[in-house]
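Good morning N.,

You mentioned wanting to compare the apo and holo forms, so I went ahead and generated the holo version with adenosine-5'-triphosphate. This is what I fed in:
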Amino acid sequence: MSPAALTITDATVDFGAGPVLDRVSLDVAAGEFVCVVGASGSGKTTLLNAIAGLVELDGGTVAVDGRQVAGPGPDRAVVFQDDAVFPWLTVARNAAFGLQTQGVAKAARRERVAEVLATVGLTGHEDQWPRELSGGMRKRVDLARALAVRPPVLLMDEPYGALDMLTKEKLQGDLDTIVSHEGMTVVFVTHDLEEAVFLADRVVILASHPGRVAAEVQIPFARPRDPELRLTPDFQALRGEVLHHLQAVAGPAGVAA
Ligand SMILES: Nc1ncnc2c1ncn2[C@@H]1O[C@H](COP(=O)(O)OP(=O)(O)OP(=O)(O)O)[C@@H](O)[C@H]1O
Ligand SMILES: [Mg+2]
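and this is what came out, ligand included:
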């Protein structure tokens, strides 16, 4: 998997009630992990969907390695908040879905599925059905399916929002390890500032009505990251900085710490 650069230039989206995104520009370097935070309704999902090619722009462009995006494509895999695991397929077949769509031959498919299930920690669960899995395991299946096709860009919209704290921290650690090993370009939307600072190379803060990039905070920690990093003063200072930017754009009553 070779990561791609993502260039968003003056992206504007208007569903008819005024712009939801107003000339949003964002450059994500190949291999960079960007977390996007912002108040509810600030346009985070709209931005992610615009990058995915699922929402049409009313102005501006999205380009992957310089090629303009005109719709969904295999160069950008998406993991949504609600898991998209197919209940009628086993874990292995769910993971193989994108490969099958791309017409990858059976032997190569098997090999890649085994590899990707090992990557996400699901070896031994190949023949289980989604109904037999916990919420955290279903998110692993989602990630396996996204990673299987080796997408140069991975887009994630609050993937761990519905999970308990311990499961969430485990999955964050695993994602960090995966990203460290595989080298991917990631745009990850979250409400959770601790999650953003733990995962990101850079946190982008969106302001609301209309959505625009209000501030950015660089996160300089090396990877892979130790879970204990969260307890360090440097980590908490960066979290505080992101919170400060959010409060500045939302007003004092707009954010719950
Ligand atoms: N398909 C659509 N049609 C009309 N309006 C939409 C559509 N999608 C989003 N919106 C509006 O755009 C604004 C931004 O929505 P979006 O879902 O991008 O916000 P968000 O930052 O992801 O919020 P949350 O944190 O709650 O997920 C909201 O006011 C929403 O109602
Ligand atoms: Mg959203």
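DSSP finds seven helices and ten strands in the chain.

Happy to go through it together on a call whenever suits you.

Best,
F.
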